[in-house]
Amino acid sequence: MRNRITSFLRCAMVAVLFLGGASQVWSDDLSDARLRANNGDHAEAIRLFEKHLQTARPSASVYYELGGSAMKSSNPSLAALNFRRALVLNPRFDAARMALADTNLALGVPSDPPNWTVRIASKVPLNFVLITGVVLCWLGLFILVFGFHVNARRFFDVGLILIGVILIALVCVCDPRVNLIQQRFVMASQGCEVFNAPVDKSEKLTKLPQGSVVTAISERGRWIYGQLPGGARGWFLSEGLELVIPAK
Fold it and tell me: Per residue in 119-162, pLDDT tens?
C-alpha cells in the first residue's frame, strides 16, 4: 500500500513538473514574440506567435497581436485571417473588429454585412448566457422530478426548462465558434476562381479576391461547393483556402 502511494506521488510530481515546464515554454514563446513585435522584428514575431498558438490554448488576444504584426509586415491577408480568429473567440473584441475593417479596406474586400446574430454576439456574453441556460434547465428538471407536483409548481418547472432551452438555442445560433465552423478564408494572392461544376474546364462564374470568405457546404476531393459572400453558390478548389476556425 505504501509503495502504491509513493508511486502515485512520484507520478503526480512528474506531471506537475511537466506541465510547469510546458507552461514556461509557452510563456517564453509568447514573451519573445511580444518582445520582437515591440522591437519592430515583425517577421520573427509572426513565427513565434504561430509557434505559441500551435501548442497553447487559442487566445483572442494572441490572434489579435499576430494580426497586428502581420499588418505591419505588409501582409494584410494574414492579418485579416487572424483578426477574424480573434473575433471568433471573443465577438465583443471591438479593437479586433475595427482592425479587421481597416484590413478589409486595404485588401479591397467589403466587410461582412451585420446581422442579428452578430449584433447579439458582439453585445451579450455568450458563455454566461449558456451557463445560465444550463443551470435553469437542470433546476427546472430537479424541481420537476423531486418537487411537489402541484399545478402552480408544474408551470414553474416547465417555465424554467423552456427558458433554459431558449437561452441554449440562442447561444448555439449566435456563437461564431458554432456557426462559422465551415468558413474558409481566401489566402491565395491570385484569389479564388469559382466554377459551375467541379471540373477545371467548366464554366467560370466569378473570381473572388484575396481576403474573401466563403462557406463550405460539401466537398468532393479537392473541390468545395459553397456559398459566396453575395449569397451565390459555386465550386472552387480547396488550395489557397484556410479554415477561419483552425482545426487542432
Answer: 999 999 999 999 999 999 999 888 888 765 555 556 788 889 99
DSSP assignment letter at 1: -
Q: Say whether 245 sits in a helix, a strand or coil.
A: coil
* Nine-digit cell string for 13: 510530481
Sign of CA dihedral 170, 86, 217, 232: positive
Domain topology for 2-109: 1.25.40
Q: Which residues does 162 contact at the CB level (< 8 Å), separation at least 6?
A: 140
Rg over alpha carbons for the chain, rounded to the nearest Å, is 24
The sheet carrying 241-243 orders its strands as 204-208, 192-195, 233-237, 223-227, 213-220, 183-186, 241-243
User: Right CATH number for 181-243 from 2.60.120.200, 3.30.1130.10, 3.40.50.970, 2.30.30.40?
Assistant: 2.30.30.40
Q: Please, which residues have CB within 8 angstroms of residue 73's CB and are 6 or more apart in sequence?
A: 42, 43, 46
Q: What is the pLDDT of residues 5-32, one digit of tens each?
A: 444 434 444 343 333 444 444 468 899 9
